[in-house]
Design goal:
Pfam families: Glyco_transf_43. Belongs to the glycosyltransferase 43 family. The protein is about 30% helix and about 20% strand. By secondary structure, the protein is of the alpha/beta class. It has a 7-stranded mixed beta sheet with strand order 3-2-1-4-10-6-11, with helices on both faces. The chain has a 3-stranded antiparallel beta sheet with strand order 7-8-9, with no helix packed on it. A two-stranded antiparallel ribbon has the order 5-12. It is globular and about 80 Å long. About 30% of the residues are buried.
Length: about 280
């Protein structure tokens, strides 16, 4: 009896060390599957996010899409000085493998309420924080995967993630409802099947006139090209084009989604709600 009492006392003292959180269990399962089971390449979905009234609704929508993708590792980066309980709670409830980071956009690049979206670079600090995490925590030739910059205000068909596992260098596909068009898309050469140009509502002659949602990059390239980052020095609207230029030429792009004939991702920003009051005690 005394021994049993002693064991219980020791367990009580060390219970915090013995208990695995649900998130840690998911991480352990993820790692075990990668090591011992026939697994797909991991898709590292990078999602910058910031507080506004629809933030939880947006993150809920895409988190529930990601729950249908077996090989996902979600990297969520808050534009904030500290991680928030709202995002932390949503991550726990998602049952996904998640890395939760935060990186604050400097004041000189923060959008004001009436600023058009194109006026400032958005997501630079957050995407760079994710790139830094990938390069510090993953190992070239050991960890296999694909990196996708997945904004929180888009809508995603799970088929786009099925396309990503085919990526050898950089895969590309159409994006719906963007640039003043029903869709933007790479234009393919009928004979070679290679990308020869772009149908884009803005600056189609850019080296890579591709929306952030319209490409995914093999993890190996991210780990090799350690100087590849996003920058405030880039011309407005050129983040994607300049970033892709670190890795590949236009002719090397890999057209996916049935040779860029199918749309599996859309820009569908939620309407900004009119909120005149707050109900205490509800996390919305």
């Amino acid at each position: 009896v005394d021994d049993l009492h002693s064991i219980r006392k020791v367990l009580e003292i060390h219970k915090d060390q013995l208990e695995l959180t649900q998130q840690q269990l998911l991480q352990l399962k993820h790692i075990t599957n990668k090591k011992y089971g026939p697994s797909l390449p991991t898709i590292y979905a990078v999602t910058p996010t910031y507080w506004r009234h629809v933030q939880k609704a947006e993150l809920t929508r895409i988190s529930q899409t990601l729950q249908l993708v077996p090989n996902i590792h979600w990297i969520v980066i808050e534009d904030s000085d500290a991680k928030t309980d709202l995002v932390r709670n949503l991550i726990v409830e998602s049952n996904l493998v998640v890395t939760h980071l935060n990186a604050k956009t400097p004041p000189f690049e923060q959008l004001k309420d009436k600023d058009p979206r194109w006026k400032r670079h958005r997501g630079v600090e957050q995407r760079n924080a994710a790139l830094k995490w990938l390069r510090e925590n993953l190992v070239l030739n050991k960890d296999k995967g694909v990196v996708y910059f997945m904004d929180d205000d888009n809508t995603y068909n799970i088929k786009v993630f099925q396309e990503m596992i085919k990526v050898k260098k950089v895969g590309v596909w159409p994006v719906g409802l963007v640039g003043g068009l029903n869709a933007e898309t790479p234009i393919l050469d009928g004979k070679t099947g290679k990308v020869k140009g772009y149908k884009s509502g803005w600056m189609p002659n850019r080296p890579f006139a591709i929306d952030m949602a319209g490409f995914a990059i093999n993890l190996d390239l991210i780990l090799i090209k350690t100087d590849a980052t996003f920058s405030y020095k880039m011309e407005k609207g050129y983040q994607e084009s300049e970033f892709l230029s670190y890795f590949i030429t236009k002719e090397e792009l890999e057209p996916l989604a049935d040779n860029c004939t199918k749309v599996y991702v859309w820009h569908t920003r939620t309407e900004k709600p009119v909120v005149h009051g707050v109900v205490p005690g509800l996390e919305v």
